Amino acid sequence: MNYRNLAHTGVQVSQYALGGGMFGSLTTKEDSIQMIHEAINAGINLIDTSSRYADGESEQIIGQAIKGRRDDVILATKFGAEPNNKLNQNGSSRRWVRQVVEKSLKRLQTDYIDLYQLHHPFSDTSFQETLGVLTDLVQEGKVRYIGTSNHQAWQIIEAQAVSERHHLQRFVSEQSPYSLINRSIEQDITEVARRYDLAILTYGPLAGGLLTGKYTAGHAADSHSRAVFLKGAVGLTLNPELPENKHKFDIILQLQQVADQAGITLAHMAVAFIQNHPAITSTILGPRTPEQLRQYIAGVDLRLSSDLLDIIDTIVPPGKRIDDKEQTWTPEWLDSSRRKRTNEIL
After folding, report:
1. Cα dist. 171→34, 189, 193, 200, 306 in Å?
2. What is the number of other CB atoms lying within 10 angstroms of the CB of residue 340?
3. What CA–CA distance (Å, rounded) separates 218 from 220?
4. Residue 115, SS3 per DSSP
5. Which residue spans within the chain are E strands per DSSP?
6. CA dist., res. 40 & res. 20, Å (int)
7. DSSP readout, 82-151?
8. Most buried of 46, 105, 142, 158 (most Cβ within 10 A)?
């Protein structure tokens, strides 16, 4: 396992991070704890979760699993996207952040969070408001560092400017989706990270399982796959039977053939591809079973040649996302109410 600097903090994190998105939902508590222990024993020191995952149960499981090993773990969690519709009980206001951080600390059974991340942007709350309360939490010792997730490049830059202007803590990391079939962060976020000395934590390296090689266009997904478990828009992006997904699966087949010719699995090639980019600090793995975690770890030393990377570029060009439905968060300014003029005299 290699370790890389978390931006300018002096903290080093493992090239792989363990994501807790499945803990308490698609993965049992027992299997989740087993994976956490196996990951730590394999050298993974960064564990990432969210107050949203399994309505907080993911944090509870992680807190229980790392008892006695807290100093071995760089603990990251996210806030702001809590799954409820109650007034003033989500988002990034000073009022709510003060409440939700205490809940996370209690569930995680810890006095501090190493990396506290804003789960996605909120246009109704200023960065000055959010950074103000996060600065207080850092000064109080409840949070060590702060980061963002699912932010666009211009938002990252705006936040950095607000920090400098008002002498507030600055975000040191951004968490974004990145895979062989979703290279959109290469358009601007990777360069913004280089210019502002930000760590990039990526998630979705296997695109929800699409890059495991187990899906074939026109054929039903296995009954135990995420394409069956997951519903809504996410499930639709994984469904190999839908005609609109044929183009995506044709591209995945080309990538599979490249991996076969190189004598490696598609999954290992997909993760190694992400690790090759110099802007990437750590890749968050989201295994559903202990066996999936072991398969990830088995490819930790794989390095891709320049020739192979060039071939991948011809199949999925740099900066390209081949399926817009895979965008994990849709900006509110794309809502119909923000795109249409109303009550105008023509």
Report:
1. 32, 14, 11, 11, 33
2. 7
3. 7
4. strand
5. 3-5, 12-14, 16-19, 46-48, 74-79, 113-118, 143-149, 173-177, 199-203, 280-285
6. 14
7. -S---TTSSSS-HHHHHHHHHHHHHHHT-S-EEEEEE-S--TTS-HHHHHHHHHHHHHTTSEEEEEEES-
8. 46
Hunting for tokens 């804003």 — which residue is that? 118
Whose tokens are 């992006």? That residue is 237
Q: Strands (DSSP E) along 150-242, which ranges?
A: 173-177, 199-203
Name the nearest CA neighbour of 315 among 188, 181, 178: 181
Which residues are bridge partners to 177 per DSSP?
203
The pTM assigned to this predicted structure is: 0.92
For the question of residue 16 being annotated catalytic, the response is: no
Give the DSSP letter of residue 182.
B
Catalytic residue among 3, 16, 53, 215: 53
Q: Which amino acid type is present at position 319?
A: G
The DSSP output letter for 289 is S
Assign 27 to helix, strand or coil. Answer: strand
One CATH from 3.20.20.100, 1.10.580.10, 3.40.50.300, 3.40.50.1100 for 3-215+265-304: 3.20.20.100
- Domain segments of the chain: what residues? 3-215+265-304
Token digits of residue 155 = 């938002």
Joined together, the tokens standing for residue 310 give 């060039």
